[in-house]
Amino acid sequence: MEFQAIGIREFNTYRKRPDAWVIDLRSREEFEEVHVEGARNIPYGDLKAFRKYLPKDKLYLFYCDRGSSSLMAAKDLSREGYRTMSLVGGIQAALQNA
Length: 98
What we know:
This protein has five helices and five strands. It has helices spanning 8-14, 28-33, 47-50, 68-79, 90-96, and strands spanning 3-6, 20-24, 40-41, 59-63, 83-87. Strands 1-5-4-2-3 form a five-stranded parallel sheet. The longest helix has 12 residues, at 68-79.
């Protein structure tokens, strides 16, 4: 499966879908400080262990601090059959457009 790198407009559209899960890949502390409404926190380093709990019938919208970790996560999970997207610019892009 292919993954997509998307901008904040697309991200905000996709995250309203009932099959979408927004995943914040930053640390628990960063997540608690600020996050996208409705996001679930799975720190990037823990993602491999959490994969078994992620249903493949969902659309995963990943974001991190600036976009590099979410891009890697989206790419890796798409290879395993997950539908994934990565927010270009990460939480910084989300905060600028809040």
